[in-house]
Structures are given as structure tokens and as C-alpha cells.
Write a structure and sequence with these properties.
The complex is a heterodimer. Chain A is α/β, with parallel strands linked by helices. Chain A has helices at 44-52, 84-94, 99-112, 128-140, 158-172, 208-214, 227-236, 268-280, and strands spanning 4-16, 19-29, 33-37, 59-64, 69-72, 146-150, 177-182, 193-198, 201-206, 218-222, 240-246, 249-254, 262-264. Chain A folds into 2 domains: 4-211, Rossmann fold, CATH 3.40.50; 216-265, no CATH class. Chain A contains 8 helices and 13 strands. In chain A, strand 6, helix 5 and strand 7 (177-182) form a beta-alpha-beta unit. In chain A, helix 2 crosses helix 3 and helix 2 packs parallel to helix 4. By secondary structure, chain B is mainly alpha-helical. In chain B, strands 2-1-3-4 form a 4-stranded mixed β-sheet, with helices on both faces. Classes of the chains: A alpha/beta, B mainly alpha.
């Protein structure tokens, strides 16, 4: 059986009389890749901070492997007045690595993410994408078993984002568990499991394929013609639930499949709209 | 644990080294204060602007007027009338007026002999206090001269009377002029013979430098970690709260001690101060005080939410300590309601230690009470602040 590396049981965090996140229950096993997503204010950051131990829970229990956590906060939170290399070496030493090992690992990892030529630049002067990569390096330098990342790809250009996710995959291939939050729902495609949060509650916690199988609607895409013409056509389809433009096409959610239309896999947005709608009903 | 601490201290030193301006401030502040408190902020009063109106109409009055005008610490101002003198005082051109009344210094037929009247500008506190004291000093040589004159006169009178008596009634050699007790005391000041400000201010300044550099920098340093989010990152590491605090403190201890030595040496070389006590004992006590100041800094960092608040809180603690500790104003002059505040401040205990050891050469046997309070203070405040400082962000 796979080892559980992080276990959250009915964990809550109260911010005020009517602001509460949770109760959240979540477990993370060896080699798992879990994406935490949901709209703004759903409680993603709080959930990750509780998992990392940065916030003390108001109630409930968090168990995690000792000294095996890597954490990347949403905002840049390294020392801007230290160089990239000094930051990595500081965190390596803070996690108890020997001096020589810290130096070697920081060099290797900075090369790995492509920051080798910038290792002597002050962290505060790096570009947004470089800062994210540096934060990743600082979080994984001690080879944690669990990597918690709060929106690591927000503000990173699409090319860098793909490269960044590839790096994460490479890291996770070593058997570490990854829990990351994102606003970009397509990033959930990388994940084995998706945790959807809404207003402080877990809406669902399941694999993407399982969720798609449970999805009661059908998604189709129509193309050819102006946007208004396509939308008009979509609204005329039988059993139409919703329609919205996507590039030159229009995506339609239907209660029943309609013959002759190009089928599409439900996106995480589609799943979220369905689940959130279920909840409010 | 030592490796983690070393990493923190190393990181802190790199940051201090990169922040050239703050580093410069930490070194410039003590030098600046040394100049302000040693030279400019002086309670030594000289050049008191004095006017004299002599209405005595005799040589004694003229002698007195001349003595006052010629006194080295007075700056004579020409004054014709007391109305004009009051006007000059209003405009700050005169600090003291001495009026010698008509007939002063002559034998009076009846009634009280007229006395010198002195008018002092009370709006200049230190000048007013010093003016009165200096007047006595200015008159001292004249008094001696007058006394010997009076004695000579008395003797002459007695001898004249004796001459008129039948011979053999009295022997002139048996008579001496009356001896007069001097009413002006001969003052001698121990430890600081010239009553200079610098020897009294600089020992306390040593403490003030430690207080400001360490309290402010520690408070700001910890709050900055919280503001930039690095605290969030540190929480995930195995670094324990007390390691984090110690890692923050040690570099500022080093800078505080550097400033301490700087002020100590400058005080000795620039102001010619002599340290008469035991330097090792003084250093240990200063270290105790340093820990009080650092603890205060951590305490502030646990209360303040941002650097601006930390700065404000730190500034309040400095001002209160500087004003109420006896460093500037003597504790004896403070109202009873203020004294409990004074005695709650660590600086109040450091000032007598610094002055006592610096000027009087006192040792632990004389200052053990103050030392014990500082020790207790250091323990209590670092304990409270370490307990309050949790490795959490909210």
C-alpha cells in the first residue's frame, strides 16, 4: 500500500465570525499529483498554508511527514537582497544539508531549471518566471517527499509555464507527492486527482477521468461562420444547457448528444460549473 | 542546530552588507550622537549675558560692578535702566541683570542695609540656574578683598580707640581684628571637577547607542521577514523559533558591540574621558543591557504588523527611556507619578552603572542591585518575547 505523506482531517481555519475555510479533509500519498482548484476566495491558499503548517488550524488535525515538506507560497517570498544561489544555499542549509552538499545541489538545480547563468543575480532582480523557478528550486533543494505549491504558474508566460510543469513532472517522477493550486484549470490535466474548492468547502476530490465519466452532460463544439451566427445556432440546439465562444468556435453543453456535432471532452470549467450548480441546488 | 544557526547568521550578514545605507546609519548614528551629546547638547553654561547697573555711588559698588563685568564666564551687556534691561531680556539679549542699590556697601545709620538685586531670565532654564551659581563665583575674590578691607578698617578703628586710652590700660598687641566667617562656601566637585557635560553624558550615551541600534534593527528585521513573506518560507524549514530569534540577534549584537567600542574609544580620545572602573565588569553589564534592548526589539516585532509600526513603537520606547531614565533629567526632579515608569525601564538601571563605573570607579559591590535588575529584565523580556514569537504567520 502506498504511504500516506499528508493527511488533513476535518481541518478548519476561522478568520472571523462568518469567514471560515473548511472543514477540509485531504490525503496525499506517495507519488500522487493533486491539483487544487476553484474560483478566487475558494480557500486554496488557506488549504495549502494549513497543509504546510504555516497556518495553525482552528480545529481538526494535520499530519505530515516530518521535515519532508517543500512549500512555494503564491507571492514571491525569497530574499530579494540575496543572489539566486545564496537563496538556494540558505534554504539548503536551513533544511540541514551539509555545506558542500548544499553548494553542489544548488549549482545542479539552478542549471536544471536554466538559472545557471543568473545564479549570481539578486533574486529581486530576476524576471517573474525566473523567480518562480528559483522558488521551486528553493523548495525542492532538500528533496522533500511532499511539494506544496500555491499557484506556481500564475503570471508566467505560456511557454515558461509548460517548461515549468515539465520540471515539476521530472521532480515528481522521483516518487514525491505534489499538491498544487492553480487558476488555470487545464493544468489539472496533468493531475491524477482534482480537488475542487468552492467557498471553503471541498466540492469534489476525484480523478479527472472519473469526474468526466460522472459528467451527465455532453459537450460539443461548432464552427464555421460568425460568432453571432454560431451562438444563434447553438441556442437553437435541443437540450442546450450553455454556450460560450472559444476562439473561432462555440462550445455547447447539451443534455443529450446531438448527431452530427463534433464531440469534445468536458473541460474542468465544465465540470466545475456542473458541480457548483449541483451544490447550490 | 548550529548549522542552521550559522546559515541564519550568514544570511543576515550578507543582507546587512548589501544594505549599505542602513549599515552606514548604524555606524553614523553613534558618531552623530557623540557630537550632539558631547559637544552641542551641552549643559555647561558660559557666556551668560549680564548687565550691571551701579547706583551705589561709591568705590565698593564700582568694584563689584567691575568684578561681574570682568568675570570670564560672563559676557557684559551695557544696560542703563531696569526698564531697558527687561526689554533686552524679552528679546533674548540679556540673561541676568545685577542692580547695585544706592548706598550699598556703606555703613547704614539704621535699618537693613540694601542688598544686591538680581533679575534672571527664567525662560532659559539652564542659563538661569547657572547664572545664579556663577554670580557667587564671580563675587568670591571680591568678597575676600572686601573682608580683608573691613578687617583692616576695624583694626585701625580699634587701634585709634586704644591710642586715646591712658597708657597701660590695654596692650595693642592683644587686639586682633574680628574674624568673619565666610558666607560663600568653597565648592569642590568630585569626579567631574569642571562640571562638564561630556563626562556625564557619554557613559549614558553608550547605553543609548546599544538601545537604538539593537532594538530598532531587531524589530525591523523580524517584521521585514513577515512582510516579505520569507517568514512563511522559514516556517516550513526545521528552524526552531529560538534559532530564528538567535540568528536575528547575533549579527545585531555584533554591530551593537562595534558601536559600543566606537563610542567608548571616541569618548576617551575625543573628550579625554578616563574609564576608572573595571572594564570587563562594565562590558558584562553592558551585554546584559544589550539583551534587554534586543528582547524589547523582539517584543515589538511580535506586536507590530509592519515596518512602519515597528519603527513607531521602537521610537516611543527610545524617547521614554531617554527622557525618563535619569540620562538627561535627574530622577530626583521627577514627580512621584512618573517614577514607577522610570523604574520599569531598563535604561534607568544602566545609566547609574555607566556613570558610576566610568566616573567614580564603582564596582559590582556598589552596583549589584542595578545589575540584578538588568539580569532579571533580560531574562523576563527575552522569555516573554520568545514565547510570544510563534513560528506562524497568523
Amino acid at each position: 500500500m502506498r504511504q500516506v505523506l499528508l493527511q488533513m482531517d476535518q481541518v478548519t481555519k476561522r478568520y472571523g465570525p462568518d469567514a471560515e475555510v473548511g472543514p477540509l479533509s485531504l490525503s496525499l500519498g506517495e507519488g500522487e499529483w493533486v491539483v487544487l482548484t476553484g474560483p478566487d476566495g475558494a480557500g486554496k491558499t488557506t488549504a495549502l498554508r494549513l497543509a504546510a503548517g504555516v497556518l495553525a488550524p482552528s480545529s481538526g488535525r494535520v499530519q505530515r511527514v516530518e521535515e519532508g515538506i517543500g512549500y512555494v507560497a503564491a507571492a514571491f517570498s525569497l530574499y530579494p537582497d540575496l543572489t539566486a544561489e545564496e537563496n538556494v544555499r540558505f534554504f539548503a542549509r536551513a533544511f540541514g544539508m551539509a555545506s558542500g552538499q548544499a553548494r553542489a545541489e544548488s549549482e545542479r538545480l539552478l542549471e536544471w531549471v536554466g538559472l545557471g547563468p543568473h545564479s549570481h543575480r539578486l533574486a529581486g532582480q530576476l524576471s517573474g518566471g525566473m523567480k518562480k523557478k528559483l522558488a521551486l528550486v528553493c523548495a525542492v533543494v532538500h528533496r522533500p517527499k511532499v511539494l506544496l505549491m500555491d499557484e506556481p504558474t500564475t503570471g508566467v508566460d505560456p511557454v515558461s509555464r509548460e517548461a515549468f510543469l515539465a520540471l515539476l513532472h521530472e521532480f515528481a517522477a522521483g516518487g514525491a507527492a505534489v499538491l498544487l493550486s492553480t487558476q488555470y484549470m487545464h493544468e489539472a490535466e496533468h493531475a491524477g486527482r482534482v480537488v475542487l474548492l468552492d467557498r471553503g468547502h471541498v466540492l469534489c476530490d476525484a480523478g479527472l477521468s472519473e469526474l468526466r465519466a460522472r459528467y451527465p452532460h455532453h459537450v460539443a463544439e461548432i464552427s464555421g461562420g460568425s460568432r453571432s451566427a454560431l451562438l444563434e445556432r447553438a441556442h437553437a440546439l435541443p437540450g442546450m444547457v450553455s454556450a460560450h465562444p472559444l476562439g473561432g468556435r462555440v462550445r455547447v453543453v447539451l443534455r443529450e448528444p446531438v448527431a452530427g456535432l463534433e464531440q469534445a471532452a468536458p473541460s474542468l470549467e465544465d465540470l466545475f460549473v456542473w458541480l457548483a450548480g449541483d451544490e447550490s441546488r | 542546530m548550529l548549522a542552521r544557526l550559522a546559515a541564519l547568521v550568514r544570511k543576515e550578514f550578507i543582507q546587512i552588507r548589501r544594505d549599505r545605507r542602513t549599515l552606514a546609519i548604524m555606524i553614523v548614528i553613534p558618531v552623530l550622537w557623540l557630537i550632539v551629546f558631547g559637544y552641542a547638547f551641552s549643559f555647561d553654561v558660559s557666556n551668560v549675558k549680564v548687565g550691571v547697573i551701579d547706583r551705589s555711588g561709591n568705590s565698593r559698588g564700582a568694584l563689584i560692578a567691575q568684578a561681574i563685568k570682568g568675570y570670564e564666564k560672563f559676557k557684559p551687556v551695557t544696560v542703563d535702566s531696569s526698564v531697558q534691561a527687561r526689554d533686552l531680556m524679552r528679546h533674548g539679549k540679556l540673561s541676568m541683570l545685577v542692580e547695585i542699590p544706592p548706598g550699598w556697601g556703606q555703613q547704614q545709620a539704621a535699618g537693613e542695609p540694601p542688598s544686591l538685586s538680581v533679575l534672571v531670565d527664567g525662560s532659559e532654564l539652564f542659563t538661569a540656574q547657572a547664572g545664579g551659581r556663577l554670580l557667587s563665583q564671580a563675587l568670591q575674590p571680591i568678597q575676600e578683598k572686601l573682608v580683608s578691607e573691613i578687617r583692616a578698617e576695624s583694626l585701625a578703628q580699634i587701634l585709634a580707640i586704644l591710642k586715646n586710652l591712658p597708657p597701660g590700660t590695654a596692650d595693642a598687641s592683644q587686639f586682633a581684628p574680628p574674624s568673619m566667617p565666610s558666607l560663600l562656601p568653597k565648592l569642590e566637585f568630585l569626579y567631574n571637577p569642571n562640571l562638564k557635560s561630556a563626562p556625564v553624558m557619554i557613559p549614558g550615551l553608550l547605553g543609548m547607542v546599544l538601545l537604538v541600534v539593537t532594538t530598532m534593527m531587531t524589530a525591523l528585521g523580524i517584521v521585514r521577514e513577515r512582510e516579505t513573506g520569507t517568514l512563511e518560507q522559514l516556517i516550513v524549514t526545521p528552524i526552531r523559533p529560538f534559532e530564528l530569534i538567535l540568528g536575528k540577534l547575533l549579527p545585531y549584537v555584533a554591530i551593537g558591540l562595534f558601536d559600543f567600542v566606537l563610542v567608548l574609544l571616541a569618548g576617551m580620545l575625543l573628550f579625554g574621558l578616563h574609564f576608572v572602573g573595571s572594564l570587563p565588569v562594565f562590558s558584562v553589564l553592558a551585554l546584559l543591557f544589550l539583551f534587554c534592548a534586543l528582547g524589547l526589539g523582539i517584543l515589538i516585532s511580535t506586536i507590530a504588523q509592519n515596518q512602519a509600526q515597528a519603527m513607531q513603537l521602537a521610537a516611543i520606547t527610545f524617547v521614554v527611556q531617554i527622557l525618563l531614565s535619569g540620562f538627561v533629567f535627574p530622577l530626583a526632579s521627577m514627580p512621584a507619578a512618573i517614577l514607577p515608569i522610570s523604574y520599569a525601564l531598563p535604561f534607568t538601571y544602566f545609566v547609574p552603572i555607566a556613570r558610576g563605573m566610568f566616573l567614580k570607579g564603582l564596582g559590582l559591590s556598589d552596583l549589584w542591585r542595578q545589575a540584578a535588575v538588568l539580569l532579571g529584565y533580560a531574562i523576563v523580556i527575552t522569555t516573554i518575547s520568545t514565547v510570544r514569537f510563534r513560528k506562524r504567520i497568523g
